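User: I want to check something. If I give you two sequences, will you return the structure for each one separately, not as a complex?

Assistant: Yes, each is folded on its own. Here is the first sequence with its structure:
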Amino acid sequence: MRLEDCFKGRQLRRGRPDINMARKSMEMAFEKLERASELHEKEFYEESVVASYSAMFQAARAILFVEGIIEKNHYCVVLYLTENHKDDLGLDLISWLDTYRLERHQWFYGVERLGTDSDESEDAIDRSTKFLERAKEILNKKKP
């Protein structure tokens, strides 16, 4: 699938930029990041990675909201960021967003445990923290 397919199929739609929704989405991102750390401390490592992904996804949505993009598909968000924000977010973090997207899918819909350990959970939290920091920088540049 290509980014243009996401718009044609209405998994992404153009709307009005919404600073308020972007702010709410970033607040949610930081809440999810905090939850990821709490889950890690309680040794719920798979759940911690899922919460880390949720934090990254909410931060990604904040970027889309401020640019007037409405999402209906997680993969299309990855494509949009790759096309429009590879320089300011970095392809490494966008790639990790996609990796955690796939792990989240497996965790929710798969029938086998992922076997996530403490190190993987900690890495997800670190990457999520970096992703949120970069997203915040992008949003700060877009404030009127």
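And separately, the second sequence with its own structure:
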Amino acid sequence: MKEIIATIKAPQAIGPYSQGIKIKCSNLIFCSGQVAIDPATKQLVGQTAAEQCRQVMHNLGEILKAAGVGFNSVVKTTVYLSDLSDFAEVNEVYATFFDKRPPARATIQVSKLPLDAKVEIDAIAAL
């Protein structure tokens, strides 16, 4: 019923969670929140929220790909920002990963993210 999604092309989990979960009976994939870790160096990359968002979306894309889908299958995301004033620049980058029918989304400001990242995004996709 539950299949763990794991790929070396996205950063390995830095805690007790999976990169993604595919629920076979519901046809949904749940991608854990991603920060801007380069899977090759295992280091946080990008100085700006936009730069970090680009890496975050790349990481999510690799997890989706490992599950057999792409960004067009994403139905819901949550964007966590350490500073809501970065909203516009993150939107610019985020929008380039979706067609004219983007998923539902919530965006919230949080007091701190893992590794002092500026952006974290999780996703739910349909098979």
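Because they were folded independently, the notes below concern the second chain alone. The domain at 2-126 is CATH 3.30.1330.40 (60s Ribosomal Protein L30; Chain: A;). The chain is about 20% helix and 30% strand.
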